Amino acid sequence: MKQKFDGILVVEGKMDKDLIESFLDCEIVTTNGSDVPHETILYLQEASQNKTVVVLTDPDAPGKRIRDVLDHNIPNLQHAFVPKEKAIKGHKVGVAESDKETILEALKHIVPSSSEKESNLTMNDFFDLGLASGPNSEELRHKIELKFHLGHSNAKTMLNRCRHLGLNRIDLEEALKNG
C-alpha cells in the first residue's frame, strides 16, 4: 500500500514522477526541465491557495534554478532536499537516482521559503562559526545541511533557510560539535 502525502509535489521530470508514484500517493507536477512553463507556474499559484506545494528537485544547478523560479512566483512554497551523495547512480545525479527511503526522509524535513518563526541568526554568526569565508566553511556548512536537511547552498542561502526553520546560533554550534 502506498503512503499518502497531502499536498502537491513538484519534481523535474517523468523519471522522478515514476519513481515517487511507485510508493507515494499524491499529486505530482513535473516542470519538464529548468524552463518551467508559464502554465505550470499559474497552476501552482492557484493550487498553493488551498494545498501545500513542496518542491523536490535534483541537487544540481538546474534543480536550484527551478527552485528559484518557483520561489519567486509561488507564495508559501515548501522545499524538500535529497542529499547529493544519496542521489547518484553512475554518472547521473537526481531525485530519480535516489531511493524511496531518501525521498521519504527528505519529505519529513520540509523547509519553508518564508517563516513566521523567530530567528536572530546573522551573517556575523556564520563568520564566527566558520560557516562563511573560512578555510573549511563549505565542509562545515555541509554538516549543517545534513543535520537539518537544508540542501547544498552558499552561506547566504543557508542563513535564510536556517532562519526559516527558526534555528539559532546554539542550534548550529551543537550541530557542528556533534556532527
What does this molecule look like?
The structure is a single chain. It is globular, with a radius of gyration of 16 Å. Helix 1 (14-21) links the parallel strand 1 (3-11) and strand 2. It is 44% helix and 15% strand. It contains 8 helices and 7 strands. The chain is an alpha/beta fold and 179 residues long.
Principal-axis shape equals globular
Integer average pLDDT: 93
| Separate helix tally | 8
Main sheet, how many strands, which sense, barrel? 5 strands, mixed
Q: List low-confidence stretches.
A: none
Give me the strand/helix succession: EHEHEHEEEHEHHHH
The CATH C-level name of the largest domain is Alpha Beta
Strand content: 15-25%
Overall domain count: 2
CATH architecture of the largest domain: 3-Layer(aba) Sandwich
What integer value in Å does the Rg equal? Answer: 16 Å
In which order are the strands of the major sheet placed?
Answer: 2-1-3-4-7
SS-based class: alpha/beta
Q: Helix proportion of residues, in percent?
A: 40-55%
Named CATH topology of the largest domain:
Dna Topoisomerase Vi A Subunit, Chain: A, domain 2
Q: N- to C-terminal separation?
A: 35 Å
Number of strands: 7
